[in-house]
Amino acid sequence: MAAGPAVVDGWEGTPLYGVEAQDGGPQCSASNDFCFLCHFEQSPNQIGTPADLYGSLVEMINEMGQQNRELNHIVEKVYSNYEQFIRPHISYEHPETCIQITSPAWVKASIRRHLLYSSQFRSLFHITLEQMFHSIFTKQNATMVDASNGQLDGTRLKEFNDTMKTYLAFQKHVTSKSLLSTTDRTSTS
Ligand SMILES: [Zn+2]
Questions:
Q1: Where are the domains of the chain?
Q2: Helical H runs in the chain?
Q3: How far is the CA of 157 from the centre of ligand 1 (A)?
Q4: CA of residue 90 to ligand 1 center, whole Å
Q5: CA of 118 to the centre of ligand 1 (A)
Q6: How far is it, in rounded angstroms, from Cα 124 to Cα 74?
Q7: Using alpha carbons only, how large is the chain's radius of gyration in Å?
Q8: Whose CB among 22, 42, 167, 171 lies 3.0–4.6 Å from 54's, allowing a Cys bridge?
Q9: Model pTM greater than 0.90?
Q10: Maximum CA pair distance of the chain?
Q11: Percent of the chain having pLDDT more than 70?
Q12: Exposed/middle/buried for 159, CB within 10 Å: 0-12, 13-18, 19+?
């Protein structure tokens, strides 16, 4: 399922952290896949009731985002929640064919696409950036010491420090926006 290397001006690159963006733009509107969160809205008179499928799902995603859970984990949870509690109860009219589709499949690629690129869950994109920084740190760390003499390599150390500086600025920005901070909603479950 992973996309092949992207070639730009002769440079063949692969993603540092797999977000599986698709051709034609990464957002839901560029895809023909069904997306539950794009096709449905929260029903105002069902807010807070068990029938509020949309609201429960959004709340679950926001809670996992506040816990800084990894994106793949959130996608898996959303997928199984949709399959179990939502899919059996919904149908929708396909926008192009106008055919009524009962219990539409919401594939994981479509879930991931919405979570990352719809801007409905902005904190999830920040979690992905956080993962990218972790990946950069890991890769830079792996070659930091000159194997011939056991000393730190100056160039690599400088590159690491640059990454660290950017990372700290990113963290400061995110914290100021409270996007990654765990809100202390005292849960007694
Ligand atoms: Zn969507």
A1: 17-177
A2: 36-39, 53-66, 71-81, 108-117, 122-142, 154-177
A3: 41
A4: 16
A5: 6
A6: 9
A7: 21
A8: 42
A9: no
A10: 70
A11: 87
A12: middle
